[in-house]
Every structure is written in structure tokens, then in C-alpha cells.
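[Meeting: bench + compute handoff]

Bench side (C.D.) handed over the final construct sequence. Compute side (W.E.) agreed to return the predicted structure before the next meeting so the bench team could plan truncations. Sequence as handed over:
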Amino acid sequence: MVPPGSNDENWKCLNVTVSDKESGNIIEYKIHFYRKTDGRYDEVRYDSHEIKKGRKILAPHLHMKLTTPFKEPKDGEEELKRIIDKILPELKEITR
């Protein structure tokens, strides 16, 4: 399985859910796509919970980690500003 719209067959998916034993309703999930690139991993995943002070709390969120070459701090800052201005608004719309 690959992310929708992706033509890269190297993506793998790990989809983990925890269900309530009585009702069968999903109470926690992690949907994780990943691929190995030059010895490192690209990953995109949804998590339903995060751990704070040693306890899991409901906090659905998206993680993205994409391998990049080493960047000078100023170049990296400018690139992140472009990502925030151009890509983040579309991602926010998609993840609603």
C-alpha cells in the first residue's frame, strides 16, 4: 500500500489500532507510512494520542519527516518559511 497519489512503490504502511474490548470502537490509532532513503527514513504518520507526564492523552496530530541534505541555518530558515507559507495551508485543509 502506498499513499494516495504516490507512484513510489517503496512506501510501506503500518496501521495500528486499539479497540475497546466491549464496544469494539477504536480508541487509539497510529497510521504510519515510511520508506528508506539513503539509509534514513522518510515518514508521514497520524497519531491519535501523545504522552505527557507519563500518561497518554487524546491529541490527534500529523508527523512528517523527510530526509534532506545538510543546510546552512539561514537557507533552512528560508525554506521552512516557504513551507509554512505555501504547503502548510494546503496540508491543514487536507487534514480537517
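W.E. noted at the follow-up: Residues 69-96 form one domain. C.D. will use this when planning the next construct.
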